[in-house]
Amino acid sequence: MIQVVLPAHLRTLAHVGSEISIEVKGPVTQRSVLDAIESTYPMLRGTIRDHVTLERRPFLRFFACQEDLSHEPPDAPLPEAVSSGKEPFMIIGAIAGG
Predict the structure, then answer these.
(1) What pLDDT, in 10s, does the model give residues 3-15?
(2) Please, are residues 92 and 83 in contact by the beta-carbon 8 Å criterion?
(3) Which of 26, 33, 37, 41 has the fewest C-beta atoms under 10 angstroms from its C-beta?
(4) Domain holding 66: CATH number?
(5) pLDDT tens sequence across 15-30
(6) CA-to-CA distance for 98 and 81, rounded, in angstroms?
């Protein structure tokens, strides 16, 4: 099981706690994790990735093992600690303003 930490606004929308567990079939990549999240929590479709392009929304970032994975290719394997469930895949809401 993959552990995923969601930002507050997505937790509220999905009616879940701060961390969810999802099952990913096949290689554990950003794409497979996000596909599993959207399959399990259909109300989150379009909130993390664009409906058409499937690209990450601008004010969300992806982290794992203290690394920013936001600009990594979506099909690149996630770190072993994430795929084994030892470390969470974190979706963080970015803060902007002036």
Answers:
(1) 999 999 999 999 9
(2) no
(3) 26
(4) 3.10.20.30
(5) 999 999 999 999 999 9
(6) 36
Adjacent-strand bridge partners of 29: 77
* pTM, two decimal places: 0.91
Amino acid at 94: A
- Name the residue range of residue 62's domain: 2-93
Look at residue 98 and tell me if it is in a domain: no
Q: Is residue 86 part of a domain?
A: yes
Split into its structural domains, the chain has a count of: 1
The residue length of the chain stands at 98
Written as six digits, the tokens of 3 are 């552990």
H helices present in 1-98, as ranges: 8-14, 30-40, 80-83
